[in-house]
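Email to the structure team, subject: 4Fe-4S binding protein model.

Hi all, the expression group asked for a predicted structure before they design truncation constructs. Nothing fancy, just the tokens so they can compare against earlier work. One-line instruction: predict 4Fe-4S binding protein, return tokens.
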Amino acid sequence: MKKLKVKKGAECMACLACAVACSEAFYKVSDPSKACLQIVEKKGAVKPVVCPQCGKCATVCEAGAITQNAKGVYMINKKKCTGCGKCAEVCPFGVLVKAEDSPASKCIACGICAKACPMDVLEVVES
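Reply from the structure team: attached below.
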């Protein structure tokens, strides 16, 4: 299974380079709120929150727009997506994005964010 992961022991400096790279890739705008990962402060440390490919989004998609590919990544078929936002509501990690007037988007483990991170905090792995 292909996943985006936070490297153990890596320290995020909250520069948002990863979030900006993601939002530019998906929405062609520099807006961290539209990124498929979030940077949060938890117990005094700043950490990226990434999609673990749990599939909860797929279970609530009435249109059948979210399916798992051969590498284990849940993908959204933008042509099938009705834009209802139920997938974003059910995401336990808050990393599935439902921007206004757009289909939903989620991490596809493409690695754009990992390449943009100057602290080398993120990595795409096969598990």
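The helical segments are 17-27, 56-60, 86-90, 112-116. The mean pLDDT is 95. Ping us if the truncation boundaries need rechecking.
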